[in-house]
Amino acid sequence: MTMKISGFTIVRNAIQFNYPALESIQSLLPICDEFIVNVGKSQDGTLALIESLRSPKIRIFQTDWDFSEGNIELSRQTNMALQECRGDWAFYLQSDEVIHQTDLPKLRRCMEKYLHQDVDALRFAWLHFYGSYYRYRIDRGWYQKQDRIIRNNGSVESMGDAYGFKRCDDRPMRRQHTGCFLYHYGWVQPQDVMTQRRVNAEMMGITTLTESEKTQEYSFGDLNRFPVYFGSHPLVMQEKIARHAISQQDWQDIKRRNMFNPCTYLRPRFKTSRREKLRIH
Q1: Of 5, 67, 71, 193, which residue is most buried, by most CB within 10 angstroms?
Q2: Partners of 272 in the β-ladder
């Protein structure tokens, strides 16, 4: 019996908040037999944006999202998309998460390896890019690993604000590591968009802002206080990266300061495993 893989995601106001939703879906689509997209009622052209992909693998359905109960609505909507999946594995990406194309064969082999074993989920290391496509967060409060591929047999469900998954019977998750990165781009945005996104996050019950934080342009501060990412990015992100002026200037500064560092030229894909304290700016 051939293994089947379902991709799934939820998305709402992708244009307004500059989510790389198309790039996210495109990065995973090659290894999926189907891709389920739950499109929430939006104030922009999100539905048309997703429909523009025109892939026979993609199945779209629309819903109204109700945040009267806070951020649990995100997990509810995620579970609605999960229920539409028909594959042996369900591969979840949030609309600002992308998979590197060189990891796709490895991920398929990983799913094949554990298909008939007692494994509930496959885990990724998270790369949270911040301010620049060449800086990432590893300080306290930023999760560094998470499950994104789950067994699609009804035993696992999305939880909380949809950042992860749990077993429906509340027993510990049986998981294995993929050894691959999850590229998270939610915090590489124009500063005015970041302010809008944070206000939206407060509306969903994810965070709490002061009155000044709701109106002032968001500041990333001195990017030099964050670790450098020397590696390559997924090909689907290249156009966005090339257009991001802060990142382009940051990369030039990184090369100048690291001209004798072999990582500048070899571009290895790695991140430090050491938790770092944030130097407040």
Answers
A1: 5
A2: none
